[in-house]
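Lecture 7 notes: from sequence to structure.

We start with a single chain of 158 residues. Read the sequence below before looking at the structure.
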Amino acid sequence: MGRTDRTDRAGLVIAAPPTTVYDALLTPEALEAWLPPDGMRGRIERWDPWQGGGFRMVLTYLDPTGSPGKTSDATDVVDVEFADLVPPERVVQRAVFEADDPSYAGTMTMTWHLAATGEGTEVTVTATDVPPGIDQADHETAIAASLANLSSYVEAAG
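Now the structure, written as tokens:
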């Protein structure tokens, strides 16, 4: 039961308008550039950018030593459904990792909330129903790293 009570979150103010940030959440080339955590490369295999659609991303460890993947030793494969799309305010994703290990099983919900601020866009990411095999501190660090990558990506593009 502890799994349902856990919420992982991270936030960052990004120096870009909400529409620019929202577009980076719904463009495959952008997601491949900023979503993979440090030390991983991402490739989108399926792309259906509408509510009820989603995408499949293969994440490959650049150096798999000591970082066993969830799907294979060197990869994580995640299927993501767009559960809710409210431009330019919110993207709700339901993510399922392909894994034999039951501690990574289940559907994790990631809510990306975008709010305009004087400096740009405050982006808050909230993850619920996180599989227990994913360490909370590591996960929040990874979300924060993805937000930093997103910030660099949209600021460079702008």
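The CA atoms of residues 9 and 126 lie 4 Å apart. Keep this in mind for problem set 3.
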